[in-house]
Amino acid sequence: MQSGPISNLLLPLSLGIIMLGLGLSLTVADFTRVVRFPKAVFVGLTIQMVILTMVAFVIALVFKLPPELAVGILLLAAAPGGATANIYSHLAHGDIALNITLTAINSALSLLTLPFIISFALQYFMASDQYVPPPFQKIIEVGTIILLPVVIGMSIRKWAAGFAAKMEKPIKIFSVILLASLVAVSVWQSWDMLVKYFAVVGLACLAFNLISMGVGYAVPLAVKLPQKQAIAIAMEIGIHNGTLAIFIALNVLNNTAMSVPAAIYSLIMFVTAGFFAWWLNRQPEGQAV
Description:
The protein has helices spanning about 5-25, 30-35, 40-60, 65-80, 85-90, 95-125, 135-160, 160-190, 190-220, 225-240, 240-250, 260-280. By secondary structure, it is mainly alpha-helical.
């Protein structure tokens, strides 16, 4: 997997446009509600930062992954939720404000947790004590892509509510088309890598994705959170910032093989999240369990 125009320019630009559209559907009250009821944030962060790391470690052992790929899947688990989690949550009628809040908090916390988790993985699987610096620049980029367009969209809604309401549905349709196009181009661009590595790590990535999304949906429902929040957490847990994981593997760890799980997972998660959103939309409200 190599960085290219898709991951470096087109994807961030597209996500920025889509996040602007999401901002048109949000108000300040949506975020104050999340702050007033912190249980959902605590549950989401606990799953993301504790349970997922344990799941990734077990999967690496169960599938007997080669050391570099095992480190790669732990690196993926340590990466915060991706911006596209907000988009899929919107499509599935989840709590978008909760998604944005979780992504922002988890991205900040990952400055501390990500180097620790990767260092553990390197030492356990490769007997390496390589230092992994906190990815400050990438975290700032993620924050910019997510937060700035949302703030602009919310401002438009506040000062031009009629225009915001009129644009919400067209932008939602545009989001679906754009995401499908980006996934198709990414598959085409990465086809040789997929063919080479999928037999080795593909099933492990699929298992990690399905378990992540399943746990992210089931646990919130089990602790009596509203379904909209369960959907938001499931998308946040199941959709990782693969771009950040790939960047660290290539530019910090200087190891192409370690970027492979994130690259394959990034393609799988778009498909599974799409099916999950489709299934949720077919269920009567409150019965998608």
